[in-house]
Design goal:
It contains 8 helices and 7 strands; from the N terminus they run βαβαβαβαβαβαααβ. It is 43% helix and 15% strand. The chain starts with 6 loop residues before the first strand and ends in a 21-residue tail after the last strand. Strand 1, helix 1 (16-27) and strand 2 form a beta-alpha-beta unit. It has one domain (7-234): NAD(P)-binding Rossmann-like Domain (Rossmann fold). By secondary structure, it is an alpha/beta fold.
Length: 255
C-alpha cells in the first residue's frame, strides 16, 4: 500500500531508532512531524530530509500534556490531518527496586506510558473523523519475559500495561478503520546502549540493529487496509532470556 502524501507524527525522533524510522518514512514521501527534546538534532533531521518530503519539527517534552497538545495542534495546523502516529519516545532506569530513584520511576511512567496513552487520545478523534489511521507503539521485548527481568520491573510492568492498552484500543477503534500495532524490539543498538558499560563482545553481537526495527514498522504500515499487524516481536535469534544482554547492575546514562 502506498504511503505517499500521508502525515505521520514521530515521537522520540532524535533517538537511534527514531532516526531510522524517520529515514524510512521520508523515503516513502510521508509528510513528517518530528518530536523530540533536542532542537539541534530536530533541525538537522529537517535539513536532511527536506528535499524528500515536507518536514515539521516540534520541540516536545512528552511528559508534559501542554507539549503534547501543542504537537498535535502544530501538526494539524501545518498538514490538516494526522494519518500515522509512531509513539517512540522512551527512557529506561535499571536498579533493584529498593534502590530505584523516585524521580526515575516518575520519568519512566510519564515517558513510557502516559505519553503514549495521552498522545493516542489526542489524535484518535481526528483519525475517527477521517475513517482511518494507524497508531504504532514501540514497546519492548521484555513484555514476553515472565516474571519481568530483574532491575527492570517498573520499566517492564509499564510496557505490559501499554501492551494491554494497545490491544484494547484496537478492539475499540477497528470499526472506524483505525489500526493499532505494538512492536516489541529486543535490546537495540542505539547511542544509549553504545554507552553502556561492561557489555561483552558476545552480548554486543546480540543487539538488534535500528534499521530492522524501522523496516518492521514500515512493513506494518504498508499492509492492506483490511489487515492489521496487531503485535510484532523483533528479537535476536540467539538471545537467551536467562542471560540478559545488559549486565544485572547497570545504570542507563542520560541520552
Amino acid at each position: 500500500m502506498s504511503l505517499e502524501g500521508k502525515t505521520a507524527i514521530v515521537t522520540g525522533a532524535t533517538g537511534g531508532i527514531g532516526k531510522e524510522v524517520v529515514k524510512k518514512l521520508a523515503g516513502e514521501k510521508i509528510k513528517l512531524v518530528l518530536a523530540g527534546r533536542r532542537k539541534e538534532i530536530l533541525d538537522s533531521l529537517k535539513e536532511e530530509f527536506k528535499d524528500k518530503t515536507d518536514v515539521l519539527s516540534v520541540v516536545c517534552d512528552v511528559t508534559k500534556k501542554s507539549d503534547l497538545e501543542n504537537l498535535v495542534s502544530s501538526a494539524l495546523n501545518r498538514f490538516s490531518r494526522i494519518d500515522i502516529l509512531i509513539n517512540g519516545a522512551g527512557v529506561s532506569s535499571q536498579h533493584p527496586f529498593w534502590e530505584q530513584p523516585l524521580e526515575d520511576i516518575e520519568k519512566v511512567i510519564y515517558t513510557n506510558y502516559y505519553s503514549y496513552v495521552m498522545l493516542s487520545r489526542l489524535v484518535v478523534n481526528h483519525m475517527k473523523e477521517a475513517k482511518g489511521g494507524h497508531i504504532v507503539n514501540i514497546s519492548s521485548g521484555s513484555v514476553m519475559v515472565d516474571p519481568p527481568p530483574r532491575n527492570f520491573i517498573v520499566y517492564t510492568s509499564l510496557k505490559v500495561a501499554l501492551r494491554s492498552f494497545a490491544k484494547g484500543l484496537f478492539w475499540e477503534m477497528r470499526d472506524f478503520g483505525i489500526k493499532v500495532t505494538s512492536l516489541f524490539p529486543g535490546v537495540t543498538r542505539t547511542p544509549l546502549t553504545n554507552r553502556l558499560k561492561d557489555v561483552s563482545e558476545e552480548q554486543n553481537s546480540r543487539l538488534v540493529e535500528p534499521v530492522v526495527i524501522a523496516d518492521t514498522i514500515l512493513f506494518a504500515l504498508k499492509q492492506p487496509q483490511n489487515v492489521c499487524p496487531l503485535e510484532l516481536a523483533v528479537i535476536n535469534q540467539q538471545t537467551p532470556w536467562t542471560k540478559p544482554v545488559i549486565p544485572f547492575k547497570q545504570n542507563h546514562p542520560e541520552k
